[in-house]
Design a protein that fits this description.
single chain; 746 residues; alpha/beta; Proton glutamate symport protein; 7-stranded mixed sheet; 17 strands
């Protein structure tokens, strides 16, 4: 019987692990522990190997050879990244038209942290860099030590022992590689057992387009680049490197098999008669030098940025691409999980989408490292060939490549566009998602009054609000009808939202039913004073006027002020642009003092009070509203143009879900915030109860769960086991069969 090759064993390990993960689901999640042990064993020799290998090989290098390697390495790195830039520009054409606003993200109020490039590249403490696995800093340290050793007259006294140590580290790595089939089996089973298909379904556009990019570049474009410039056969390259590439795919890391990858390239060189010992030694220099630089695997992962923009209705236009591509080039020097937030923030794409990227890394981390590894193979072979003087440009091969790549790319992108257009019809938009949200709290019996009216049961002498609620077995809760996401009617005409959810929780805690009473705009204070409500549970800003006139609960949520405006309106994108405007007008609801505070930063701005959100979008659709006479800043006007609406960022973000043609902006260089409170009936007992209730339900996580769903858009679901063949198919059938046998026996 023919002995199985290592690559076949590794592939079998991956397939068996995937099958086991699908079959038993979370039951085999523990296998990720031995998988992590395997990765740790592979990693333990890598950084010392890179460090000693660079010191030894640079120390023995001549200045002339070193200059050649750096020169050709940079030329071909630029060539490969140029291919990446080109595909980053054309691949977004695969995304069909799609409109979906975005939920609020807490990143709106957070300052983005700049990258610490000094720590990443400057080894102030080489031992700390080794300990923290900071590869670029370790490489730079090794280069400087190698350059220092290069000029020493007795350098072999140091280099020979280091050479032996490097060989020893390589042998250790080869010993560990022998258990790769078992290691990748555990990794695959652990990963698949935790995979959530519901989350990944929303990412199909990104995953499919990125997979297309990896397949095109790895198996078509880079092989053609190698065949155009070098004498090496791509068939031979894949044959030699396949087991390493499969291991890289399974582990999701290039670094863990770095020594093995170097050995593969040396084996590729040996397939040509003109190979020299010098060329093989240079592999140990070029590979570690190339590793810290951007590779196409990491570079192409930034296709997520135009995907995120497209998916949230913030699709990049032509003028955005210079910023996108330059930020990608800068960010690709670090891990995508660090670099992507920078690019998203720079292009003002909602940071909530980054959570989708984190979910996608379960798959993309394994795909990108395969392309990254083949990028390193290609770069090393091109640099070695040029440095040795064997580089030859094959014109006929170049023309053939140009034709084949152009046709394949066009057909692939066009086909992907059609596929996504069809498949995305089944993916819910954020508007559909928010409309299907259910109340988290226990739903109480309730009625919704059509119009506001007084409480029909007046308080008895000496009776407090809490006692009356208990006597009536009902609580009257005020709400604004169109105050998404706090209180609104969904597509099924059910009253839902953040405040409504809390209202049901309050009623449940009191053991009473609910009378929902609509609040008439501009009448909150008078209606509250005239006993229309026991409490109002919509988004009510804390204000000095309210505090003077009515009773308020303690604050239960801090919100940020922001503007809602059309997507193509760039007047409020930054502070400098807004302050230079000759004039502009913002609208607001009832909170005149908040509008005045905001406009205090913009002396040329004016404001206009509105009565409902219908007016906002009516005005914005027509751009203006014609009125006979409006008093605005002491000037009588016949026409007023509303440029933006001032509200909380939380409410503005939810409105973009229903009106994808609008965006949330903050022109100020910092964030103005305000607190939300519950206006309540005026008596001490009721105020104490509500404040204590807020404290209790905050501590037990109720407020946070409700916030996560209605504000952040993270649907609350009871924890369920992940799907598996055993739990969802075999076990139910076995149970049915067992029940049938028991019936027969009886």
């Amino acid at each position: 019987m023919k002995k199985l090759s290592l690559s076949t064993k590794v592939l079998l390990g991956v397939l068996l692990g995937v099958f086991l993960g699908l079959f038993f689901g979370e039951e085999v999640g523990w296998l990720s522990i031995p998988g992590d042990i395997f990765i740790g064993l592979l990693q333990m020799t890598v950084l010392p190997y890179i460090m000693f290998s660079l010191i030894v090989n640079i120390g023995r290098l001549s200045m002339e050879t070193g200059k050649k390697i750096i020169k050709y390495g940079l030329i071909f790195l630029f060539l490969l990244l140029s291919l990446g830039i080109f595909y980053l520009m054309i691949l977004p054409l695969a995304f069909p038209q799609w409109g979906s606003g975005s939920f609020y993200s807490s990143d709106f109020v957070q300052q983005s942290k700049p990258f610490d490039f000094v720590k990443l590249y400057i080894p102030a403490n080489p031992f700390a860099s080794l300990s923290d696995n900071i590869v670029p800093a370790v490489v730079l340290f090794s280069i400087f030590i190698g350059l220092g050793v290069m000029k020493l007259p007795n350098k072999e006294a140091l280099l020979k022992p280091l050479d032996v140590l490097t060989d020893g580290l390589n042998q250790v790595n080869k010993m560990i590689v022998k258990i790769t089939p078992i290691g990748v089996f555990c990794i695959a089973a652990g990963v698949v057992s935790k995979l959530s298909w519901s989350d990944l379904s929303r990412l199909q556009g990104y995953l499919l387009v990125y997979l297309l990019a990896v397949i095109l570049i790895t198996f078509l474009i880079l092989p053609y680049v190698i065949s155009i410039f070098t004498p090496y056969s791509t068939k031979t390259i894949f044959k030699i490197t396949r087991s390493t590439l499969i291991t890289i795919f399974a582990t999701g890391k290039i670094i863990v098999v770095f020594p093995q990858l170097i050995e593969n390239i040396k084996e590729i060189l040996e397939t040509q008669k003109n190979v020299t010992k010098k060329m093989q030694d240079e592999v140990d220099i070029i590979m570690p030098l190339a590793y810290p630089f951007p590779n196409l695997g990491t570079f192409m992962i930034f296709i997520f940025v135009p995907f995120a923009g497209w998916y949230t209705g913030e699709a990049l236009d032509f003028t955005d691409y210079p910023i996108f591509l330059s930020s990608t080039l800068l960010s690709s020097f670090v891990a995508p999980i660090t670099g992507l937030p920078f690019s998203l923030d720079l292009l003002k794409i909602p940071q909530e989408t980054f959570q989708l990227f984190v979910v996608s890394t379960v798959l993309t981390d394994r795909i990108r490292v395969v392309l990254g590894a083949f990028h390193l193979i290609t770069l090393t072979l091109l640099t070695l060939t040029a440095s040795a003087g064997f580089l030859k440009f094959k014109k006929r091969k170049f023309i053939q490549a140009l034709i084949v790549i152009s046709i394949t790319s066009f057909v692939s992108i066009f086909g992907m566009h059609k596929l996504l257009k069809k498949s995305m019809q089944n993916i819910p938009t954020n508007e559909e998602i928010i409309n299907r949200f259910e109340l988290i709290s226990p739903q109480q019996d309730f009625v919704v009054l059509e119009k506001p009216k007084k409480n029909p049961n007046r308080k008895w002498r000496g009776e407090n609000t809490l006692s009356r609620i208990k006597r009536r077995d009902k609580i009257r809760i005020g709400f604004y009808e169109k105050s998404v996401p706090f209180s609104f009617l969904n597509k099924d005409s059910l009253l839902v939202g953040y405040g409504i959810n809390l209202a049901h929780q309050l009623a449940s805690d009191l053991g009473v039913s609910i009378e929902f009473v609509p609040v008439k705009h501009g009448q909150l204070i008078s209606e509250m004073k005239n006993d229309y409500f026991d409490i109002i549970m919509s988004d009510i800003f804390l204000s000095s006027r309210y505090a003077e006139e009515i009773e308020l609960s303690k604050p239960y949520l801090n919100v940020s002020l922001a503007l809602l405006t059309k997507k193509d309106n760039i007047l409020f994108d930054d502070f400098d642009t807004t302050t230079k405007l000759d004039t502009f007008t913002i609208s607001y609801f009832e909170r005149k003092e908040i509008a005045k505070e905001f406009l205090s930063y913009f002396p040329n701005g004016g404001s206009y009070p509105l009565n409902s959100y219908d007016e906002i979008f009516e005005i914005k659709k027509r751009d203006s509203i014609n009125l006979d006479s409006i008093q605005l800043d002491s000037v009588k006007l016949k026409t007023i143009k509303i440029d933006a609406h001032l509200t909380s960022a939380e409410r503005a973000a939810a409105l973009t879900v229903f009106y994808p043609g609008y965006k949330v902006v903050n022109p100020l260089p910092y964030h103005l915030s305000n607190a939300l409170v519950f206006p309540i009936a005026k008596d001490e007992v009721w105020r104490r109860y509500i404040n204590n209730w807020i404290d209790f339900r905050t501590q037990d996580g109720t407020f946070q769960r409700v916030y996560d769903q209605w504000i952040l858009g993270k649907e609350f679901k009871k924890q369920k086991s992940k799907w598996s063949i055993y739990e969802n198919i075999i076990k139910p059938k076995f149970a049915t069969h067992k029940d049938t046998l028991e019936v027969i026996e009886k």
